[in-house]
Amino acid sequence: MTASSEVFDMQAAPMRIGTVRLKVRDLDAVGRFYEKALGLVALDTTSHHVTLGTPITPLLELVGDPALAPNDRRQAGLFHTAFLMPTRADLARWLAHVVATRVPLQGASDHLVSEAIYLADPEGNGIEVYADRAVSDWHGPDGEIRMATDPLDAQDLLRAAGGTEWSGFPDAGMIGHVHLQVGDTAEADRFYRDVLGLDIATRYPGASFYGSGGYHHQLAGNVWNSRGARRRPKGTGGLDAVEIIVRDAADIAAIAARADAASIAVNPTENGMSLQDPWGTTITLSKRG
User: Which of 114, 140, 141, 278 is 20 to 30 A from 214 in CA distance terms?
Assistant: First the structure.
């Protein structure tokens, strides 16, 4: 890990992730998981809805409905919601916390651009918790963003905590990216690159990674479990909507024009607009903050 203060300024990116909305069958159980395992705090709670985040920033919305069909991992939808820690030490403290509290983990990887740990909530919604490396570590000799899936040195990571303990999700933490399951990467490119205007930062076999402002990815889409998937059936648990915060209101107008040219319906919202990707996930574009 390079010792550097050269971190990516997500607030300056033309587009970044705001909130993610999930539909869940057991609202209490899923909400408690995000509070205890990730340290999120409940900001707004009703009998069928809870908003979680930092004390000042909403990050995750859970909408409860016991009648929902269980999430099917072969369908299009969520691969994981990725929670970005401000520093490597924050990630180390969180890792020590989940190990001590025996939260089940599903994997850990060194992606060159970041170090990441994987788990899932009680209804199978994927979660990544990660910290970025310095931006100068991301690029190859030709300036391309390099990513890999190498083993994570967990012991070296834990030492970065320096003996300090986890005290909850950091105020400066955020959702760094959302990784989607899609039915076809070429079709995903036509929506996320050609309509939304994101760059293809890099590719894996069966996956495209979409970035804004030079970030390694704010969104991604893969077919690893979902090749050929069609629109998600209504009444199914899992991903419902992703909010993208757009820095320049003119970009929202440009996206609306491209969506109209592609015959994609656009719905006005209080702060921008919403539209659906080819698999029925609502993408809300907001000018705020």
Answer: 278
Cβ atoms of residues 161 and 87 within 8 Å = no
> For the domain that residue 244 is a member of, what is the CATH number?
3.10.180.10
Looking at the DSSP assignment, which residues form a beta bridge with residue 285?
A: 244, 273
Residue 5 lies in a domain: no
For residue 141, count CB atoms less than 10 angstroms from its CB and return exposed for 0-12, middle for 13-18, buried for 19 or more.
exposed
Q: What pTM did the predictor assign?
A: 0.96
Distance CA 105, CA 221 (A): 22
Q: What are phi and psi of 275, to 5 degrees?
A: -155, 170
Residue in 180, 281, 179, 181 with CA at minimum distance from that of residue 225: 181
CB crowding 5-14: b at 16 or more within 10 Å, else e: eeebebeebb
Tokens of 116: 């990441």
Pairing of strands 219-222, 238-246: unpaired
Q: For residue 196, which phi and psi values (nearest 5 degrees)?
A: -75, -25
What residue type is assigned to position 88 of the chain? R
Q: How many domains does the chain have?
A: 1
Q: Is residue 72 part of a domain?
A: yes
Residue 70: domain span: 10-286
Whole-angstrom distance, CA of residue 201 vs CA of residue 215: 8
Q: CB within 8 A of 215, min separation 6: which ones?
A: 8, 10, 13, 201
